[in-house]
Specification:
Two copies of one chain form a homodimer. Chain A has eight helices and nine strands. Chain A is α+β, with helices and mostly antiparallel strands. In chain A, helix 1 crosses helix 3 and helix 2 crosses helix 3. The structure holds a DNA duplex (30 and 30 nucleotides).
DNA sequence: TCAATCCTTATGTCAGGACAATCGGACTAC
DNA sequence: GTAGTCCGATTGTCCTGACATAAGGATTGA
């Protein structure tokens, strides 16, 4: 007896363009992701088997698997051997990214502004030299910024960068994020080591952020590396906890 | 002229056991990872091309690629078309995991202890019912714990769980972490939504954690989902920032 | 009625081959 | 000398085919 088990991908109008330079598996992954995002593939529904899907699209099974796997890695799908592939119905789907505060705020529609307080060269002390991988006493960029949202101070950002990577134009620092500057200088960001904590505001910090002395502050220290393992940035940030918190989603790795 | 360009994987004594039920790509990935970890493959060195490696091990290229890709996903390797595969030389390699505070402390050799203050059933209020996906007024587990390290209070943990998933034995809660209990109950943890912030300690909180009133506290709120998208746990934790911070490594997703 | 066994179905693993795209160095032409 | 071009090396993409493994339901047996 033929099961009337509808394959939800059948009615999606999926198609791939073999003339496009975009890889086939990527085209498929994008279309599936869009379908999930807009609800055309409802959470919890089975996806219909890979073989059929491959046949329907005129693709090979490995290609289809590669597309599906990329969505599994993103946490959108779950595969079960012997059962099928299922749309996970998670509330939020924002993964933890290597993103800058600026981008985060902009995405949240907060219209962030930056005030560059300091943009200069300083000799690296021992600790800074160690994390950035330069010699002690070598010049490094030092940037201090105040990030505002809706005209209110939100965070105080101190960053150090090795010289020679990019030219830190104060004007551009005020209109965009540091990560975006790094990327547009041809640097491939690879990983970052972060530490998030809290402490009481020292007098100078308190004044900068318009908080009372001793108020709790959220702190983040970070070192960012490019794909060669070279440290490209180190930062020490303090946030007003009433205006900012770190929100993100974790995925269980396999 | 033959290039005397030594393939560092040649001298590693790599071998796979076809009789083992462990997938071949996984065996290879483990051996490569071990070699990187112990320094046999030095940071920055090229890995030698996939074709040769496959031939040497008697594997097909897709299998070797799968092994390498898994290490790329972990951030240990970087591939460059036309160049080769390179060991990234990063300082730390701990990824951000879906791990419990208990496991983290244990891994750090801190010998954590737990004090279960409350372990009972309470009716879910509107907010809790919404995040856990139960009806308002339904009974849910409520667990309050104090986590100690070296006899000093470290964190105060409040968790809520739907009923019917597992039996929360107070004794086991004191000797292990909540995540481990969930996993051993056959629940596959899939993702978690986290929010990390800070605030001043209220009088009751301050006393529990042995901090002065108004002291800064690090806070974390979390909802954990299993692979069907069902919420299996929700927690509100407060940490003493002098004793704990969130340390982790982020990877740029492709 | 209940438990063990078989069967179907789907994903997981692996092989071997082909061609394209890209990087970097060497070579060439101006 | 300098810029453009070619070329070899290596990974990226894609194909076909095969068998293994696990999950779940159906069947069969006590």
């Amino acid at each position: 007896m033929p099961k009337p088990q509808a394959d939800p991908t059948a009615s999606l109008g999926l198609r791939v363009d073999r003339g496009s330079p975009v890889p086939l598996y990527f085209q498929l992954a994008q279309q599936l992701e869009a379908a999930i995002e807009e609800g055309a593939l409802s959470p919890g529904s089975l996806l219909g088997n890979e073989i059929e899907l491959a046949a329907r699209l005129g693709l090979s099974r490995p290609t289809v698997r590669q597309a599906i796997q990329s969505l599994v890695d993103k946490g959108l799908l779950v595969r079960r051997r012997g059962v099928g592939t299922q749309v996970v119905h998670s509330q939020v789907r924002r993964p933890l990214e290597l993103s800058s505060l600026y981008d985060d705020l902009e995405a949240a529609g907060q219209r962030p502004t930056s005030l560059v307080l300091v943009n200069t060269l300083v000799p690296a002390d021992a600790e800074l030299a160690a994390v950035l991988g330069v010699a002690e006493g070598d010049d490094v960029h030092r940037v201090e910024r105040l990030r505002l949202a809706h005209g209110e101070p939100l965070a105080y950002l101190v960053n150090h960068l090795p010289t020679g990577l990019l030219d830190l134009d104060t004007g551009r620092l005020e209109t965009t994020g540091l990560y975006r500057l790094l990327r547009s200088a041809g640097i491939t960001l690879h990983s970052a080591r972060q530490s998030i904590g809290a402490r009481a505001a020292a007098p100078a910090e308190a004044e900068r952020l318009d908080e009372p002395e001793g108020a709790p502050l959220l702190t983040m220290e970070r070192v960012t590396y490019d794909d060669t393992g070279r440290a490209v940035e180190s930062g020490a940030h303090t946030y007003r906890p009433s205006r900012y918190s770190f929100d993100f989603q974790l995925l269980a790795r396999s």
